[in-house]
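notes to self, project folder thing:

trying the whole complex as one job this time. last attempt i did each chain seperately and stitching them together was a nightmare. two parts in total, labels are on each line so i dont mix them up again. if this works i'll redo the older ones the same way
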Amino acid sequence: MIEFEFQIFCRDVDTSDESFLDRLYEVGCDDATVFFKDGYVCLDFSRESDSAESAVISAIKDFERAGIGGSIERVEPEDLASLAEIAKRVGVTRASLQKYARGESKVGKDFPLPIQNISASRRELFSTSAVMNWMLQKQRASIPTERVELFRTIAKTNQALTVTKAQSDKDVIRLVGQLTTLKTVQRKRA
Amino acid sequence: MLTRKRHPNKEIESAIQFAEENSWTFKPPGKSAHAFGILKCPHNDRECRCGRFCKASVWRTPRSSENEAGKIRKVVENCIHQSEQGNEDQVEKDD
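result (full assembly):
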């Protein structure tokens, strides 16, 4: 069994009194510290499980079983992050990671490309799991594989949450209908 | 001095005291039987981590006391006002 640390963020929970806490405790969320305010609830888990996926999914299902209403927004720590944040997560300096990202290191110029660029702040965001895999492949860091797996799982789970929620969004359904047959839109890799 | 009950677990009690030393207030658990109490940040600031961590529930018997204590300490340390205070302390020391 491996311990996975992650947070589940929810909104629109009735937090007017503290009884929702007992419901969470009774379905097995006693491995989460609960933060809450004005209907927002954050469950900070340290969950033991065989895999990151079973840890995250069982936690989401526990929240559902608690029957306290609300809606799950996302799971954190988000895979998408700045280089500075990823450096912290990997345990290397920001400067060394920047060197790799700019291709200024001998280990290779194939550092994962940024996924997103917030233009106003000129801040590039990278996939933590992709950077971790690259560092492992280049033998530039020792990271437990389950940690990489956790970031990958969180990224996929958040995508799944978005897709699931989008199924009840008429505008999204209409746009998917227009885009789905386009070859240039379909994803190349899994 | 202590006006509340002590948490039966030493590690968690020490984490609660750490929060109180940083001006967090302790409130009884209200309608919850499994919570030992609720810790509230004095700043209660929306700007701080989107206001999501200003109020923390502390379990009476969490699955792991060590994890529960660690998370309480972490949330106090990560408050944006905490680091401001930390910086001020630093400046005072430098002077």
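what i see at first glance: The longest strand of chain B covers residues 35-40.
need to look closer tmrw
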